[in-house]
Structure formats: C-alpha cells, structure tokens
Amino acid sequence: MTFGFDNTNKIETLDTLATLKSIAAERLTLVEPEYESTIALPVGLVGTAIEVYGNGELSKYVV
C-alpha cells in the first residue's frame, strides 16, 4: 500500500512506521485485492517503509 504524509519528519527507506491516528481509505492506494473493502487503517499498525516517492511537501511511501 502507499500513502502520503506531510513532510515534517523525513521518512527514509527501511524506517519503521506506526499509525498513531486512523488513516482514511481515501488517502491510501491499496494494491492487494483483499484490502479493497478497507474503510481505514486502524491505530496501532506497524510497518516498514520500502520505497519513498517525492521530496516535496507531500511524499508517498510504500509500506
């Protein structure tokens, strides 16, 4: 999945990420078909940044 954050803290490849707030499905690009019905990512999920796209105010991350 990919999602964007404001770039206040630079996230780099292999950084560990955790959701501290729910992330609405509109902000996500879910690439696995089984997640297409997801309403939001809940608080407490942990993942690793695999790729980082962009250096501007809104970067996107593959987690």
What's the number of extended β-strand segments? 8
Task: Identify the overall geometry.
Answer: globular
Total discrete domains: 1
The helical percent reads under 10%
Radius of gyration: 11 Å
Q: Report strand %.
A: 35-45%
Q: Average pLDDT, to the nearest integer?
A: 77
Order of the strands making up the biggest sheet: 4-1-8-7
Distance between the termini: 6 Å
Q: What is the H/E string?
A: EEEEEEEE
Ranges with pLDDT <50 over ≥5 residues?
none
The helix/strand class is: mainly beta
Largest sheet: 4 strands, antiparallel
Number of helices: 0
Please give the oligomerization state of what you see: single chain
Outline:
With 63 residues, this protein is mainly β.
Describe it:
- This protein has 63 residues and is mostly beta strands.
- It has one domain.
- It is 0% helix and 40% strand.
- The chain has no helices and eight strands.
- The protein has strands at 2-6, 16-18, 23-24, 28-29, 40-41, 46-48, 51-53, 58-62.
- The strands form three sheets. The protein has a four-stranded antiparallel sheet, with no helix packed on it. A two-stranded antiparallel ribbon has the order 2-6. A two-stranded antiparallel sheet has the order 3-5.
